[in-house]
Amino acid sequence: MNAQSEAKPRRFEQIVEDLQALVARLEAGNLPLDEALDLYERGVALAREGNRLLEGAERRVEELQKSLAAGND
Question: In this structure, is residue 3 part of a structural domain?
């Protein structure tokens, strides 16, 4: 296992903050190419993690809506 998989799951809000900071560094435009590529790769990983969390939240909302609808029948 790698350190990231053993770490406490990140909150969506923290992922967004990290992405914003990363984008600001990239937009500053004063990074060497290899560092910019590393940051871009990290941004892609953060975006995937955020999307995964959003999809999970969407599934939970759908389940709650189905449960609510079933209770109204």
Answer: no
The CATH number of residue 49's host domain is 1.10.287
Classify residue 4: in a domain, yes or no.
no
Q: Is residue 28 part of a domain?
A: yes
The total number of structural domains that make up the chain: 1
Q: Is the pLDDT of residue 4 over 70?
A: no
Q: 7 in the Ramachandran plot: left (φ > 0), alpha (ψ -120 to 50) or beta?
A: beta
| % pLDDT > 70, the chain | 89
pLDDT in tens, 23-45: 999 999 999 999 999 999 999 99
The answer to whether the CB of 40 falls within 8 A of the CB of 26 is: yes
Alpha-carbon Rg for the chain, nearest whole angstrom, is: 18
Token pair of 34 as six digits? 């290899």
